[in-house]
Amino acid sequence: MAERTALVTGAAAGIGAACAKRLARDGVAIGVLDLDAQRCAGTVEEIAAAGGKAVALGADISDRAQVVAAVARLREAFGPISILVNNAAITGYGPFLELTDEQWERVLKVNLTGTFIVTQVVLPDMIAAGWGRLINISSSGAQSGAKHMAPYISSKGGLISLTRALAVEFGPSGVTANVVPPRFITGTIMSEQSFAGQKQPRGREAEVEAGPIQREGRPEDVAGAVAWLASEEAGYVTGQVIGVNGGRYI
User: Fold this and answer.
1) Is the model's pLDDT at 204 over the cut of 90?
2) Cα(81)–Cα(102) distance, integer angstroms
């Protein structure tokens, strides 16, 4: 893996940061991307302190020009990209009948269209190399459904279908595509905001008790699955939904 370069979006904190650090442990050079490069400094510093290679990148993934510029900087630093972890996302809450067009479009623009843009910009490197790993981070709510989260759940469900489409289309080019839908993960900005604002239909304790493994998920739980999917060992795995959810959805 020492010859590989990965781009991880939404990597300033939470799941994205854990994935970036875990891949760096395997020798992968990392592009740490978030809305602005400054907020990525902590992740980059941790990777460097552990002997890894990383560069901070700033971009709104729903803006193609910003993505193109960020990817060009990563290529300049470490070469072609062979691993992509699409983790960046936003959420939103509200009764379905009260949602506005703007609320709906805002979430889908980042979560689904942004993933489409980043993947389309990065994918040619993988095709040229005849080797690539596309890993999308969805949500277990996309499988089970969730109250008052229609835009978010729809966008994350779209990622599952997009992943399967990519797996079929680019498998012959040596590129695998898989999706990881986590349960709520402790310590992430999204989870903490939702519980703090009492936007979750169930409280924190009820969420923990909702699955067979009765503890909160950790960013490192997701990062472990991502690292495996990015490895040579997972070369015959594509189009799969790898649930990291404590058994919430079976």
Assistant:
1) no
2) 34
Confidence of residue 194 (pLDDT cuts 50, 70, 90): low
Instruction: Give, in degrees to the nearest 5, the angle at Cα 192 between 189 and 196.
Output: 135
Lookup result for tokens 């290529």: 75
Catalytic residue ranges: 152
Q: Which two tokens stand for residue 81?
A: 């990209």
Secondary structure of residue 129 in the 3-state scheme: helix
| pLDDT > 90: percent of the chain | 78
Q: How many CB atoms lie within 10 A of CB 137?
A: 28
CATH 3.40.50.720 fits 5-234, yes or no: yes
Packing angle of the helix pair 150-170, 101-108 (nearest 10 deg): 40
Predicted local distance difference test score (pLDDT) of residue 200:
58
The set of residues, in sequence order, having a beta carbon less than 8 Å from that of 46 and lying 6+ positions away, is: 17, 21
**What is the reported pTM?**
0.93
Average pLDDT over residues 206-212: 79
- Distance, CA of 140 to CA of 250 (rounded, Å): 10
d(CA 25, CA 32): 14
